[in-house]
Amino acid sequence: MAGPDTKGKARPRGAAVRHSLAVWYPLFRPALFALDPERAHRLALEALRFAGHRRAGVASAAPIECMGLEFPNRLGLAAGFDKSATAIGGLGRLGFGFIEVGTVTPKPQAGQARPRLFRLPGAGALVNRLGFPNDGATAVAARLRRRRYAGIVGVNIGKNAATPLGRAVDDYLLCFRAFRALADYLVVNVSSPNTPALRELEDPVRLEPLLAALLEERARDSAAARPPLVLKISPDLSLAEVGAIARLLRSLPLDGVIATNTTLGRSGLGGGATVPAGGLSGRPLHARSLETVAALRAELGAAFPIIGVGGVDSAATALAMRAAGADLVQVYTGLIYRGPSLVGTCLRALR
Ligand SMILES: Cc1cc2nc3c(=O)[nH]c(=O)nc-3n(C[C@H](O)[C@H](O)[C@H](O)COP(=O)(O)O)c2cc1C
């Protein structure tokens, strides 16, 4: 069972790695926070890659059935942390029930100019304008093929910055084909604010043909081999727009929705300091993500799978996400501020 370690008993190796990372993180955090945020992230990924060489999975006494998959627990790592799938094994050892890699684009790309990742420690927040730096579908697919982690891995897909919006569907199809047999589920990301015009794909007029093309492609697989297809939406949609997307989701054989990505809004930060341009995540996003999840749940009914993400950094915020209607919960920014102990904290709350 994923969860807190039992005092006095020998721990399995995964639990030992989890325990030592959780204990040491508060000591290492000041040193990591003294570094440029992107450099600190690269170091953390490298350490996790190193920690994940042995085969690992998350044993569970009470798995959760969602989207036709068996999740060992309700807590996942959100997209963007391990964009190119270099550290799945080590991340799996932290106790997550599922890990979402990406966003992956068809071709490798460098992303936007640096600096492009910023900490707002007083607000428990990050701002990023990374713009999907990743190693591209071929390299990421090769890593997924070699993975030793036995848990659930989702692949979040997007379009290259250089691809015109009118050709976006080609990029999503290329990624779908690259990962259809390697991903436990696939996420159509149309909600990142850092790829110019990407969010225009959230307009049902553009979204419907994009999802229809992916579903048509998926229908070529035998029923048993079809990966669940999930849409990830932004927190900056009005509730009317969320409603329109939910109605579209209900009309298609889509398997789930993730809410939310980062926000271009700046509420919850207080006045004063200038905030860099980019997508805001973490504590100031939480209320808006909850609202979006609740609106989706109201429109989609009790059975439609919803993954809630945005500002979860404690037992209370994880429970609030569940109460708003999320079946599964993801974290990213909370992990940066709270460290690996956040996984156990959330798992105990969500159990
Ligand atoms: C540095 C950074 C990079 C991100 N990259 C991606 C990405 O590539 N694709 C994506 O769908 N979401 C990405 N996200 C958004 C997260 O997956 C998540 O939806 C968002 O940060 C809200 O969760 P949080 O408040 O727990 O961080 C990124 C977030 C951060 C902070």
Describe this structure in words.
A hairpin with a 2-residue loop joins strand 1 and strand 2. Helix 1 packs antiparallel against helix 2 (37-51), helix 5 packs parallel to helix 6 and helix 8 (286-300) packs parallel to helix 9. The protein has a single domain, classed as Alpha-Beta Barrel (TIM Barrel). It is globular, with a radius of gyration of 19 Å. The chain has helices spanning 13-34, 37-51, 88-93, 137-145, 168-179, 204-218, 239-251, 286-300, 315-324, 333-338, 341-350; strands spanning 64-66, 69-71, 75-77, 98-104, 117-120, 125-128, 152-157, 185-189, 229-233, 256-259, 279-282, 306-309, 328-331. The model is unreliable at 1-10 (pLDDT under 50). Strands 3-4-7-8-9-10-12-13 form an 8-stranded parallel beta barrel, surrounded by 4 helices. The protein has a 3-stranded antiparallel sheet with strand order 5-6-11, with no helix packed on it. It is of the alpha/beta class and 351 residues long. Flavin mononucleotide (FMN) is lined by residues 78-80, 83, 102-103, 117, 126, 128, 130, 132, 156, 189, 192, 232, 261-262, 281-282, 285, 309-312, 331-334.
Short description:
The protein is α/β, with parallel strands linked by helices.
CATH class: Alpha Beta
- Count of DSSP strands: 13
CATH homologous superfamily assignment:
Aldolase class I
Question: Beta-strand percentage?
Answer: 15-25%
- Low-confidence stretches at least 5 residues in length (pLDDT < 50)? 1-10
Kindly, what is the distance between the CA atoms of the first and last residues, rounded to a whole number of angstroms?
10 Å
Counted up, domains total 1
